[in-house]
Amino acid sequence: MARLLKLYKEKIIPEMVKKYGYKNVMAVPRISKIVVNMGVGKALENKKCLEDAQKQLGLITGQKPVVTKAKKSLAEFKLRKGNPIGCKATLRGVRMYEFLDRLVNVTLPRIKDFRGLSSKGFDEAGNYTLGIHEQLVFPEISPEDVEFVQGMDITIVISGKQKERSKELLRILGTPFRD
């Protein structure tokens, strides 16, 4: 069992039931999935960029990513509907908790001048999104193998629908917030 999953079941659920007065343990906010998305704008000119992004995202997440395609045409970007423009991986279950553990304890501290995550990344449903400027901060990626530096978005989808309780869940799981 993943370390954070065990922590969630043994410590966080009883703590949040006591703090917020939940009548049912199923009402306690929980992480339902983590979506890691890489938008590859250079994929229109160079197909190798998209292949490299897929390979690297597969190394980072531990599963094969799917290619995302343009939903509509934009003439100013020379983009047609259906063109492959990125890749994403959706993590659930044990793999999701292991990824979150690596992200919080290994990857985020490797970011230069990192002082914590902003609390402004929460949406109205209580989900949290953060952006990483380059894939080189992940220990799975070797700098010699990277030809194109690529950023990514990480969205943590949380049940519960309340910003404050979602933030409390992530804080107890070890996510470093600066404010």
UniProtKB/TrEMBL annotation:
<protein>
    <recommendedName>
        <fullName>Large ribosomal subunit protein uL5</fullName>
    </recommendedName>
</protein>
<keyword id="KW-0689">Ribosomal protein</keyword>
<keyword id="KW-0694">RNA-binding</keyword>
<comment type="function">
    <text>This is 1 of the proteins that bind and probably mediate the attachment of the 5S RNA into the large ribosomal subunit, where it forms part of the central protuberance. In the 70S ribosome it contacts protein S13 of the 30S subunit (bridge B1b), connecting the 2 subunits; this bridge is implicated in subunit movement. Contacts the P site tRNA; the 5S rRNA and some of its associated proteins might help stabilize positioning of ribosome-bound tRNAs.</text>
</comment>
<keyword id="KW-0687">Ribonucleoprotein</keyword>
<dbReference type="GO" id="GO:0019843">
    <property type="term" value="F:rRNA binding"/>
</dbReference>
<dbReference type="InterPro" id="IPR031309">
    <property type="entry name" value="Ribosomal_uL5_C"/>
</dbReference>
<keyword id="KW-0699">rRNA-binding</keyword>
<dbReference type="GO" id="GO:0000049">
    <property type="term" value="F:tRNA binding"/>
</dbReference>
<dbReference type="InterPro" id="IPR002132">
    <property type="entry name" value="Ribosomal_uL5"/>
</dbReference>
<dbReference type="GO" id="GO:1990904">
    <property type="term" value="C:ribonucleoprotein complex"/>
</dbReference>
<dbReference type="InterPro" id="IPR022803">
    <property type="entry name" value="Ribosomal_uL5_dom_sf"/>
</dbReference>
<feature type="domain" description="Large ribosomal subunit protein uL5 C-terminal">
    <location>
        <begin position="84"/>
        <end position="177"/>
    </location>
</feature>
<dbReference type="Pfam" id="PF00673">
    <property type="entry name" value="Ribosomal_L5_C"/>
</dbReference>
<dbReference type="GO" id="GO:0006412">
    <property type="term" value="P:translation"/>
</dbReference>
<feature type="domain" description="Large ribosomal subunit protein uL5 N-terminal">
    <location>
        <begin position="24"/>
        <end position="80"/>
    </location>
</feature>
<comment type="similarity">
    <text>Belongs to the universal ribosomal protein uL5 family.</text>
</comment>
<dbReference type="InterPro" id="IPR020929">
    <property type="entry name" value="Ribosomal_uL5_CS"/>
</dbReference>
<dbReference type="GO" id="GO:0005840">
    <property type="term" value="C:ribosome"/>
</dbReference>
<dbReference type="GO" id="GO:0003735">
    <property type="term" value="F:structural constituent of ribosome"/>
</dbReference>
<dbReference type="InterPro" id="IPR031310">
    <property type="entry name" value="Ribosomal_uL5_N"/>
</dbReference>
<keyword id="KW-0820">tRNA-binding</keyword>
<comment type="subunit">
    <text>Part of the 50S ribosomal subunit; part of the 5S rRNA/L5/L18/L25 subcomplex. Contacts the 5S rRNA and the P site tRNA. Forms a bridge to the 30S subunit in the 70S ribosome.</text>
</comment>
<dbReference type="InterPro" id="IPR020930">
    <property type="entry name" value="Ribosomal_uL5_bac-type"/>
</dbReference>
<dbReference type="Pfam" id="PF00281">
    <property type="entry name" value="Ribosomal_L5"/>
</dbReference>
